[in-house]
Amino acid sequence: MQDLGKHFEHILDDGEEIVKTFKPNRRATANSFFFFFWAIPLLWPILIISFPIMYPIYRAYYNKRVYAYTNKRILVRGGIIGTDYKSLDLPSVNATLVHVGFIDKISKKNTGTLEFGSPANPIGMTNSNGMKVNPFIFNHIENPYDEHKIVKQYIASVKDK
Q1: What are phi and psi of 46, to 5 degrees?
Q2: For residue range 87-120, what is the model confidence (pLDDT) as tens digits?
Q3: Would you kindly state where each structural domain of the chain is located, as residue ranges?
Q4: I need a labelling partner for 72 at 20 to 30 A (CA). Which of 46, 94, 143, 151 fits?
């Protein structure tokens, strides 16, 4: 497996070390990206026509998407054209959530989502259109329940210091 930590090296603070990195599962991510078209057979012609445009967008999204937690914060790397980084200091995390949804189930890859909430970005926060806006989400990672338990224990140990 490739070293995913290299994606974060240039944004780490002094004394900050990556504890663990994650890459979303490719199949679950593709299912999520194209599900709307696959679920409605009437849209299959649109998918076929738009595939040469949509597939490179999906590839760019997937290739840039990497998650990590360090000894200081939660990191989310993403973007399609540019590369975006979002971070949440570990002492600010006051809630975690693990979710295994429909897309994860149909992908049959033991995947799920971890969410991290803080007072400024609580879990379940939505915008005026009712869309979830929490940027601190690890989508479609493998073994979500095990990883949730591990990262939750790690966050608690950092807070206890």
Answers
A1: -65, -40
A2: 999 999 999 999 999 888 988 889 999 999 998 8
A3: 19-160
A4: 143
Pairing mode of beta strands 95-99, 111-117: antiparallel
CATH T-level assignment (fold) for domain 19-160: PH-domain like (2.30.29)
φ, ψ dihedrals at 85, nearest 5°: -125, 135
120-123: long-range contacts, CB 8 A cutoff, minimum separation 24: 120/92, 121/88, 122/95, 123/95, 123/96, 123/97
**pTM score:** 0.86
**Residues 6+ away with beta carbon under 8 Å from 120:** 92
DSSP letters spanning 10-57: GGPPTT--EEEEE---HHHHHHHHHHHHHH-GGGHHHHHHHHHHHHHH
